[in-house]
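User: I'm putting together a small comparison set for a docking exercise, and I want a reference complex before I start. The sequence is below, and the ligand is zinc ion. Could you produce the 3D structure with the ligand included, as structure tokens?
Assistant: Of course. I'll restate your input first, then give the structure tokens for the complex.
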Amino acid sequence: MYITGAIGQTHYGRSSRLDKIEEGFIDEYMMPNMTAYNETCANICNSMFNYRMLTLTGDAKHGDVMELVLHNSGLSGISLDGKNYYYSNPLRKIEGALDYEKMNVEFPERQPYLKCFCCPPNLVRTIAKSPGWAYSKSENGIAVNLYGGNELNTTLLDGSTIKLTQKTDYPWDGAVKITVDESKADTFDILLRIPSWAKGTQIYVNGIKAAEAVPGTFAKIERKWAAGDEITIDMPMETKFIEGHPRIEEVRNQVALKRGPVVYCIESADLPEKTDITNVYLSSDKKLSPTSRPDFLGGVTTLEGEILIRKDKLGEMYQEVSVPEFESFKTNFIPYYAWSNRGQGEMTVFLPVIWN
Ligand SMILES: [Zn+2]
């Protein structure tokens, strides 16, 4: 699985019986960025599979994958205006002498109509269905699988009414407030999924610390609830550099940026004209600051700060190394799902990093 929750690394490949396959899975740890296929349907299927595994096992790790896909590779298939679609979801795109039919995104930009018409309706119905994944009923209670503003009005397994209101700016902010609007008088559980990235999370009920929050598990609050009770969950959202397993050759000495469940990327629209995306480096000592921009790309939090652009040109298949020259540039990273909404250009999720 890619860092975006995407799966199915290659457009063409071969099966273990040496049959030619399309949209296929190749060897473990073989994770190309630029030619990653990652069909939108495959990514969505990954979240559906994990939703079912979550309901069977109650293991929070499946909720993590569901959420990862919903905020990243499940959403990158559709444009912000909802009118255009990608079939494949690579982690890097470069312009130039590429045969789009064979590799990369297949098209330079999202298309209004795809002749193999599976991804667009699958994506749209998954978004429409996703509220149904937000909660699950447990033996004597309710589990909160996903965070996002909503109102819940349902019954517990014993038939008693439960009404909750969830208020939050998640995934841009890690503060979540859940109010009990109506519930039975007897003791029951509210289970809260603590994402595996959410180290240092605190949980309060009516201002009093209520449960231990262990990342990658459900925190259980068992008590008698009354209308007006308020749960506060505070998940620290830090911008993190994420590196791949050393066996993933394609990301050696590179990092991706992640904040909460959202994976970031950088694209041409935020770089000086004619910058090759492969010349963009991150410097480990340059801080990137989350910035809320309600009027940008439909309302996102960007990561703002300095990057380094390598100036010497690399053209040969192999060339002798000299100390590279870099120029500093102030820019922003955008959520991966929002890429390719500002004209044709290049994009990358993983960037080489200079450790200072
Ligand atoms: Zn599809």
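The mean pLDDT is 94. The pocket of zinc ion is lined by residues 39-41, 118-119, 122 (CB under 6 Å).
User: Thanks, that's exactly what I needed.
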